[in-house]
Design a protein that fits this description.
The chain contains seven helices and 15 strands. The protein starts with a strand and ends in a 5-residue tail after the last helix. Strands 7, 8, 9, 10, 11, 12, 13, 14 and 15 form a nine-stranded mixed beta sheet that branches. It has a six-stranded antiparallel beta sheet with strand order 2-1-6-5-3-4. The mean pLDDT is about 95. The chain is α+β, with helices and mostly antiparallel strands.
Length: about 280
Amino acid sequence: MEFAYFSRNGELLPVRDAKVPLSLVEYSYGFGVYENIRYAGGALYFVDDHVERLLESARTIELEHEFSADFVRRGIQELLKANAPKACNVKILLIGGNTPSAAQLFILCLNPLFPDRKLYRDGAAVITVPYERAFPHAKTLNMLQSFLAYRKAKQAGAYDALLVNRAGGITEGTRTNFFVLKDSTIFSAPEPEILLGVTRKAMLMAASQAGFRLEYRNIAEGSWDEYDGAFITSTSSKIVPIRSVNGRMVYGVIAPELARLMKVFGEFLEQSEGRLA
């Protein structure tokens, strides 16, 4: 689907007028933050949480601006009304300037990219790449290392690349959160080391309601035999189980408790109407 309009600083404009000057050094150097929000079935999923994280990401990298949470939410709603999509991903870009008033807020609609349905049945292939993000809690435009890792994954025929820190622990994917599972206990890397994904938050809420427990630990690369399964989460993919890592089959079948979690989370999303509270 083609979208006719985007929003710049709260003003609806034709998409053909969307441009970023080559002279904008803040954009060139990645001094900005972003969010992707799922819109489907008339529901904007977890918009308050996404906007809150956008503004928190800006604070983390000391990007000063004059946009409030209400202003951002209103801009999203006005854009959706103008474009009238059946489904899309709403992308928000907040780019810094040399003064707070020079910061720019862009909101646009993109066609969603959904994983192949076979991945939910068979599991996904991933690779591992050594990399630690400078600001784990900020979703910034400085994505070069993640881009290169993701490109390496695509070249290997994998779904994503998992990032490994200097201690040999897997923290997250290039655009996903990462977990392993043993019985009904979900294990995550420590929160200070990862981006606190909104889908991650929703999944953990659904999991808790269904009797799953959460523990934090360093998940060593190569410790697959210690767990029943592994999976990743993101806005577009929900829960995708992992089948192989670096070309090695680690889980031949989806563990029963992981299958139950996938079902529980799917039902949670259907009943949530886009709200966590």
